[in-house]
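B., you asked whether I could sanity-check this one before it goes into the benchmark set. Here's the sequence:
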Amino acid sequence: MKIASAFAMNGKQRQQILEAAPGAQLVDNQCASNDAVLELVGGGCDVLLTFMVPDRLLEVTPGLKWVQLISAGADHMGKGPAAGGRIRVTTTSGVHAASLAEFTLAMMLMHAHRLNITSRAQYRHQWLPAPEFMKTADGIRGKTLGIIGYGSIGRELARIAQSMGMDVLALKRDPKALRDTGWSPAGVGDPEGRIPRRIVGPDERAVLMRESDFIALILPLTPATRGFIGAREIAMMKPGAFIINVGRGGLIDEQALLSALEAKRIGGAGLDVFEREPLPADSPFWDMEEVIMTPHMAGPFRGYMDLMCELFAENLRRFIGGKALLNEVDWNLGY
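And here's what the prediction gave me:
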């Protein structure tokens, strides 16, 4: 079996992969373009570890059986050669469950304790009067967190939020399927789905929108989830509610969100992803005090590739043993 990796592995990572697939040939290179990926697999391979999936992939390596993506989402593949079930595709869902959950919580705490306001004041060398924060600063204990997308990230966010005294609501495609069947590091998340006070389906999103003080949007982007939060849903939010999007920009109607923020109908927003990236310099989001913005960087962290190789190694053992792969994409669902 030949394994090709479109990122350069270190010695420990290579050893982990080769121990999972004894006798396999492993070639790796840091590929920064589709052409580089095609060159890497030019001699053919059975398994490819990559983020980019070139259009000519199956033409260059017709014997390819499985692609392990380096990303948690598969929406960037569009209608490419690996989409639609022509070959098996798995994602790294769960690898950044802890990191992204912490990031989402950081946005919540930043807003609640008004750190976004004090950060802007720091740049202006302005000392804000303490009495101002007696009226606006708050904690998150006792508040309700609504999690839209109860996968690995949402489950870890729920675990942390519950430990900090928050009430948790959740939304998932099938609210009766409580158990998490994906991959997560040990000790992370809510494997049995026991933490939320209530789990609802997509048709009941109004319940979550109306009751939540904080709303975390962590869905994959699919035809079913594009525009999932529109003007109707935003209008349901509490006047002081704070919404966070760490999923994909296309999940939310940005113009409806912008209108609600400009009218101060909601408390604010934490946005790591946007419909158009990089965000245009003339976007009103840049200058809004109640918006906490980051440049689509909530997922990466220094240990990402190590955890990714841990998942890849487990999937290699399953692949060789003829067992079900973890995080395999269901193209009927889009993730």
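One thing to flag: The first helix runs from residue 11 to 20. Otherwise nothing jumped out at me.
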